């Protein structure tokens, strides 16, 4: 029996379906601050359990004029979130007062949405990264499905926190050029590609500066699978079988 | 398709240690700045200390999302208090408010471990220590969070505070000078960082006295 039925609280809300586990999921997103703004990278795979189900999913989207959102986790929940944000930006635009929501405001909004849904035991099953630039201020933050959130100079979700952030801690500095930033992100994405089974070799790198958002066309990284350890993985650990 | 994730939990423990020491004319509130989940570090520079009123600081560890919700809740209540009374809330009043706020969520608690430190209306240091559901006590010093089991016995031995069982009750403020208290705080954080994996990176120290508020940052081990 699935845990959906087992874990329902016995009250008037018990008929409501809740996401207690994800179906179609995307893997890591990695982002960093650089000289002129924020760079963000994610691959385009989406898994149905352990099946690589979709291979051309955009998991980085622009939000309003000043922000960039990257998502790990349940894709349908991410799409719902994009609908909330579209409405938020639209209603903000309708004031027509020349004001617009910056990355700080959008991140705070996301934080409240995620925490509010966890309070209802009906989480949006995502880890999100929000980056942006407004009034010369760079912003990079993250929030997960139970509402834990923070800002940093570089952030990564999921496997990225284990595999990419050690690289970022070694190599990041605050006046990285665009080219060096992309190089570091590609290094991170290559490590993730080698070691994260749900990563695929098709990725996008997005840039946001005071001038606006640019999201790259999908491309693949050069890989080399000819390492001895890959071709004969048990060479160093031969056993009786 | 079979389920792959562990059952969802609305809580996490993001670790960290909080300490506060009250003296006759000062109060020291300190917390490390590491935020972690399980064996992973999320960020090395996250402040756990929140200014609730002019002479009242709250240091909290536990589940970061709950801690932030609690801080926002208290900030909103303090704002409405200021509008109603045209003054800052006193530290003992804030202590009672925090207790009530925590107990209000008794059956879906804020997973937050708090130490409240500040100066009372006479300018004397005061520290209040809490559990997650709002039990609280006025003490001379306290430690909360992931490193509290390592820090608390050191404070007990060094500060030799009078037993709370004594009658008539004795004042719990510590005999140390402000400089000695700050030194002690640095020592216990360095010590806790050695053995507690959730404590480290740096310690933020807030000192309140008659002159005002002073902040210090000391680097800790980053492993």
TrEMBL record, chain A:
<keyword id="KW-0539">Nucleus</keyword>
<keyword id="KW-0963">Cytoplasm</keyword>
<dbReference type="GO" id="GO:0019774">
    <property type="term" value="C:proteasome core complex, beta-subunit complex"/>
</dbReference>
<dbReference type="GO" id="GO:0005634">
    <property type="term" value="C:nucleus"/>
</dbReference>
<comment type="similarity">
    <text>Belongs to the peptidase T1B family.</text>
</comment>
<dbReference type="GO" id="GO:0051603">
    <property type="term" value="P:proteolysis involved in protein catabolic process"/>
</dbReference>
<dbReference type="InterPro" id="IPR023333">
    <property type="entry name" value="Proteasome_suB-type"/>
</dbReference>
<dbReference type="InterPro" id="IPR016295">
    <property type="entry name" value="Proteasome_beta4"/>
</dbReference>
<keyword id="KW-0647">Proteasome</keyword>
<dbReference type="InterPro" id="IPR001353">
    <property type="entry name" value="Proteasome_sua/b"/>
</dbReference>
<comment type="subunit">
    <text>Component of the 20S core complex of the 26S proteasome. The 26S proteasome is composed of a core protease (CP), known as the 20S proteasome, capped at one or both ends by the 19S regulatory particle (RP/PA700). The 20S proteasome core is composed of 28 subunits that are arranged in four stacked rings, resulting in a barrel-shaped structure. The two end rings are each formed by seven alpha subunits, and the two central rings are each formed by seven beta subunits. The catalytic chamber with the active sites is on the inside of the barrel.</text>
</comment>
<dbReference type="InterPro" id="IPR029055">
    <property type="entry name" value="Ntn_hydrolases_N"/>
</dbReference>
<dbReference type="GO" id="GO:0005737">
    <property type="term" value="C:cytoplasm"/>
</dbReference>
<protein>
    <recommendedName>
        <fullName>Proteasome subunit beta</fullName>
    </recommendedName>
</protein>
<dbReference type="InterPro" id="IPR016050">
    <property type="entry name" value="Proteasome_bsu_CS"/>
</dbReference>
<comment type="function">
    <text>Non-catalytic component of the proteasome.</text>
</comment>
<dbReference type="Pfam" id="PF00227">
    <property type="entry name" value="Proteasome"/>
</dbReference>
<dbReference type="InterPro" id="IPR050115">
    <property type="entry name" value="Proteasome_alpha"/>
</dbReference>
Automatic annotation (TrEMBL), chain B:
<comment type="subunit">
    <text>Component of the 20S core complex of the 26S proteasome. The 26S proteasome is composed of a core protease (CP), known as the 20S proteasome, capped at one or both ends by the 19S regulatory particle (RP/PA700). The 20S proteasome core is composed of 28 subunits that are arranged in four stacked rings, resulting in a barrel-shaped structure. The two end rings are each formed by seven alpha subunits, and the two central rings are each formed by seven beta subunits. The catalytic chamber with the active sites is on the inside of the barrel.</text>
</comment>
<dbReference type="InterPro" id="IPR029055">
    <property type="entry name" value="Ntn_hydrolases_N"/>
</dbReference>
<dbReference type="InterPro" id="IPR016050">
    <property type="entry name" value="Proteasome_bsu_CS"/>
</dbReference>
<keyword id="KW-0647">Proteasome</keyword>
<keyword id="KW-0963">Cytoplasm</keyword>
<dbReference type="InterPro" id="IPR001353">
    <property type="entry name" value="Proteasome_sua/b"/>
</dbReference>
<dbReference type="GO" id="GO:0005634">
    <property type="term" value="C:nucleus"/>
</dbReference>
<protein>
    <recommendedName>
        <fullName>Proteasome subunit beta</fullName>
    </recommendedName>
</protein>
<dbReference type="GO" id="GO:0051603">
    <property type="term" value="P:proteolysis involved in protein catabolic process"/>
</dbReference>
<keyword id="KW-0539">Nucleus</keyword>
<comment type="function">
    <text>Non-catalytic component of the proteasome, a multicatalytic proteinase complex which is characterized by its ability to cleave peptides with Arg, Phe, Tyr, Leu, and Glu adjacent to the leaving group at neutral or slightly basic pH. The proteasome has an ATP-dependent proteolytic activity.</text>
</comment>
<comment type="similarity">
    <text>Belongs to the peptidase T1B family.</text>
</comment>
<dbReference type="GO" id="GO:0005839">
    <property type="term" value="C:proteasome core complex"/>
</dbReference>
<comment type="subunit">
    <text>Component of the proteasome complex.</text>
</comment>
<dbReference type="GO" id="GO:0005737">
    <property type="term" value="C:cytoplasm"/>
</dbReference>
<dbReference type="InterPro" id="IPR023333">
    <property type="entry name" value="Proteasome_suB-type"/>
</dbReference>
<comment type="function">
    <text>Component of the proteasome, a multicatalytic proteinase complex which is characterized by its ability to cleave peptides with Arg, Phe, Tyr, Leu, and Glu adjacent to the leaving group at neutral or slightly basic pH. The proteasome has an ATP-dependent proteolytic activity.</text>
</comment>
<dbReference type="Pfam" id="PF00227">
    <property type="entry name" value="Proteasome"/>
</dbReference>
């Amino acid at each position: 029996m699935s845990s959906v039925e087992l874990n329902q609280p016995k009250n008037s809300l018990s008929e409501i379906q809740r996401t207690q586990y994800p179906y179609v999921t995307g893997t890591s997103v990695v982002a960093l601050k650089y000289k002129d703004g924020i760079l963000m990278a994610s691959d385009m795979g989406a898994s149905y359990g352990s099946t690589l189900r979709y291979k051309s999913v955009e998991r980085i989207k622009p939000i309003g004029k000043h922000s960039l959102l990257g998502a790990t986790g349940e894709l349908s929940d991410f799409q719902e979130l994009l609908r909330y944000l579209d409405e938020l930006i639209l209603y903000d635009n309708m004031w027509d007062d020349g004001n617009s929501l910056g990355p700080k405001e959008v991140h705070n909004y996301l934080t409240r949405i995620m925490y509010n849904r966890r309070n209802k035991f009906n989480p949006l099953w995502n880890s999100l990264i929000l980056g942006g630039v407004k009034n010369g201020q760079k912003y990079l933050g993250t929030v997960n499905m139970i509402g834990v959130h923070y800002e940093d100079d570089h952030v990564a979700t999921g496997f990225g926190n284990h595999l990419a952030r050690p690289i970022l801690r070694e190599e990041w500095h605050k006046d990285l050029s665009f080219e060096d930033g992309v190089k570091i992100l590609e290094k991170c994405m290559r490590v993730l590609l080698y070691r994260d089974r749900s990563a695929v070799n098709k990725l996008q790198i997005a840039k946001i500066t005071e001038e606006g958002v640019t999201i790259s066309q999908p491309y693949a990284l050069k890989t080399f699978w000819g390492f001895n350890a890959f071709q004969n993985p048990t060479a160093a650990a031969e056993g009786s079988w | 398709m079979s389920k792959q994730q562990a059952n969802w939990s609305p809580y996490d423990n993001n670790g960290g240690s909080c300490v506060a020491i009250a003296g006759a004319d000062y109060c020291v509130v300190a917390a490390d700045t590491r935020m972690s989940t399980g064996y992973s570090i999320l960020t090395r520079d996250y402040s756990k200390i929140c200014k609730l009123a002019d002479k009242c600081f709250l240091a909290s560890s536990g589940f970061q999302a709950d801690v932030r919700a609690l801080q926002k809740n208290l900030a909103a209540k303090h704002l409405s208090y200021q509008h109603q009374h045209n003054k800052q809330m006193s530290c003992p009043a804030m202590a009672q408010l925090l207790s009530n706020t925590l107990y209000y969520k008794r059956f879906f608690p804020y997973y937050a471990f708090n130490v409240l430190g500040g100066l009372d209306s006479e300018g004397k240091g005061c520290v209040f220590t809490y559990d997650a559901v709002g039990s609280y006590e006025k003490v001379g010093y306290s430690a909360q969070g992931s490193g509290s089991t390592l820090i608390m016995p050191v404070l007990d031995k060094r500060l030799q505070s009078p037993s709370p069982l004594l009658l008539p009750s004795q004042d719990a403020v510590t005999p140390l000078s402000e400089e000695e208290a700050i030194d002690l705080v640095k020592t216990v954080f360095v010590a806790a960082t050695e053995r507690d994996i959730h404590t480290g990176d740096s310690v933020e120290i807030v000192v309140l006295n008659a002159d005002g508020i002073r902040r210090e940052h000391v680097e800790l081990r980053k492993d």
